[in-house]
Amino acid sequence: MPSIHGAARGRTPRRSGGEAAREALLAAARALDAAGFMPGRSGNLSLRTARGFLITPSGLPYADTAPADLVELAPDGAVLSGHRRPSSEWRLHAAIYAARPEAGAVVHTHSPFATALSCARQGIPPLHYMIALAGGEDIRCSAYATFGTAALAEAAVAALAGRRAALLANHGVVALGATLAGAEALAFEVENLARQYLALRAAGLAPVLLGATEIAEALARFEDYARPG
């Protein structure tokens, strides 16, 4: 069972803004792209730094992106370093960091199954105990807002209340973590849960949903698994 905090897998410390952080962020972006989560140069990732956050650039294929192409932004979006335009979704990342001080990284994908579900403007119910990895009894779908806008950022923050992941209506997925590894792992798990849910529905079956007590037990177990020893 994975750690709820995602501290493993050798990612860089959350507050680092140096070369190692840039390489780790780019490696995560390429892994998600290779998994089919970032079609057509979509999606974006960021990592909190001491001065603000490091984010992937706009419109550049991840295969062609170098560590120097990543952009460091201040919390208000001012460019601190970098020669590229930051992702058009920088407001989404900035709003999450402002609202969630525990967030060390944010991953936004267009993974196919979760995005398909978001186009129905439906979240993911508690069909499996792994839903607790996102912090609660479900994964919500946000209200719709145009990409790249402050309205989308506000809708995402609202859908993330008490959660570490949400679907963005007619858009995709956003996941946060204390570490980059945690946010990346959660983005993969959201896609897995969406696939399972849609497979059940395609088969004409309705999942037997877990109750509040069962989810609370799963949350407690995740916290226990996260402690060393």
What attributes does this structure have?
229 residues, alpha+beta, L-fuculose-1-phosphate Aldolase, seven-stranded antiparallel beta sheet, 13% strand, disordered N terminus
Termini separation: 15 Å
Number of extended strands: 7
Radius of gyration: 17 Å
- Specify the number of helices: 6
Quick recap of the structure?
With 229 residues, the protein is α+β, with helices and mostly antiparallel strands. The protein has 6 helices and 7 strands, in the order H-E-E-E-E-H-E-H-H-E-E-H-H. Helix 1 (19-34) packs parallel to helix 5 (180-202), helix 2 packs across helix 4 (150-159) and helix 3 crosses helix 5 (180-202).
Describe this structure in words.
The structure is a single chain. With 229 residues, this protein is of the alpha+beta class. The chain contains 6 helices and 7 strands; from the N terminus they run αββββαβααββαα. The longest helix has 23 residues, at 180-202. The radius of gyration is 17 Å and the shape is globular. Mean pLDDT is 92; it is low at 1-16.
Write the layout of secondary structure elements.
Blueprint (H helix, E strand, L loop, with lengths): L18 H16 L9 E5 L4 E3 L15 E3 L5 E3 L8 H10 L5 E5 L2 H8 L30 H10 L5 E4 L3 E6 L2 H23 L9 H15 L3
Antiparallel strand pairs: 1-2, 1-5, 2-3, 3-4, 5-7, 6-7
Helix pairs in contact: 1-5, 2-4, 3-5
